[in-house]
Fold this sequence. Notes:
The protein is α+β, with helices and mostly antiparallel strands and about 230 residues long. About 15% of the residues lie in helices and about 30% in strands. The two termini are about 30 Å apart.
Amino acid sequence: MSVPGRFNGPLSSGNGGYSAGVFAALIDGPAAVSLRSPVPLDRELEVEREGDGLRVADGETLVAIVEPAAELDLDVPEPVSVEEARAASASYRGLVDGEFCRCFVCGRAREDALGVFAGAVAGRDVVASPWTPPSWTADASGEIPPEIVCAVLDCPTYFALYMHDELRTSFLARIQVRHDAPVPSGDELVAIAWPIEVDGRKLHAGSALLTASGTVLAVARALLVEPR
C-alpha cells in the first residue's frame, strides 16, 4: 500500500489524518492509529500483523501502529451553525508559507485544498469551518470515504489547541475516529474542534463533522505532540 503524493500534510509527507484513515481501514472494527514517523508519499509501505493489530513500515522505519480499540466515547459540544462557521473561518490562522502551507486539507497556498479553514467561534472554546465535500472526494456510492473524513477531522484539532496562544509546531501522534453516519458529497457541512487536555508536550483535542442542522456524522479524538 502507499499514500499518494496529492494527500500531503507537511510538504513532503502524508497528511496525518488521511494516512491514519487509510491505515485504520486495514483492520475490522474501531481502530486507533499511532503515527511514529512521517508518512512517505508515493512509496510502497510494508504491512505486518502484530497481535490483533498491524505495523506499517518503510523498510526499517516504523511508520504507524494500528490497534483495535473500544468504540470512541466522546462528548461533542453544542453544534455550530453554518453561519457561525463561516464567520469563524474568516479568522483562520493558517499561514501562506511554511511546512503546512500546501496541506491538501487546510493549506492556504494550495488552490485545490479542501478548504477546511477552522477559526475561533465567537464566545466559545471551539474552532469551526464550513466544508462542502467536492465531488472528486466521493466514492462510487456518492459518499465520502473514511480516510477523507479522518483528514478533515485532523487539521482543525491543531487550531483548537492553539486557539488562544501562539501557533507552535506539533504533529499528529495518535487518532481514533468514530463514524456515525455516511458523509454525503455536495452538502455544506461544519467541521468543529475543541481542546481537551494539555500535558506538557502532549496535547489532546476532539473534533466532529456535523450536518448543517447539527447532526453528528463523525467524531475524532486526537493526540498531538510538540517536538523537543
